[in-house]
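Task card 7
Instruction: Convert sequence to structure tokens.
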Amino acid sequence: MHPVNRKILHLSRTLHIYLTMLGVFVMLLFGVTGFTVNHEDWFRATTPRVNETTAQAPLDLVAKKDGLHLVEYLRQSQRITAALTGFDELDDKFSIGFKSPDQIWEIEIDKATGATRVHEETFNVFALINNLHRGRYSGATWHWVIDISAILIVLACVTGFILWLALPKRRLFGIMVLMLGTLGTLLTYWALVPGSDVKQESPSAASAEK
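Output:
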């Protein structure tokens, strides 16, 4: 084998082992959630536990329309760790929203009295990991985790492919399996995925499917 090829093979083996071990948790996480996202109803991931409560916001903050301190007050009094997703000032009230991968808060504060209505939705662990899979309500840092995980998975595939090329006795069989997997995926998309067929459905056919 040419010395350059030996170096590439050695580098690929090293990268394949350590990058795979580095990213094994997130790759496992995204592998598991690839299944749980498709079957959210099975895991009750779309059924939150709802809690409705009332509170009293400080009238001085309400009168000053001090949004920053109102948000901080709500975080402390309601023990909210989710990200702020909305702060709307309407004619008669403030409407404030917080969201995290497993919680949703919708809060309304009456401008005249400070009366506060708190609507809280808490989801189970499957909803949490599904939203982490999607990057929903998870913040910019977690989006970097998703990007890095994607790079790790691609590098693991590429280095694994290089290592497979170094096995001449298994090369032909590997090519056949590779072609089978690729063609099977493409045929499934073309034949079974809605919207992949260029033929237009008639309105009656679409109604029948519903």
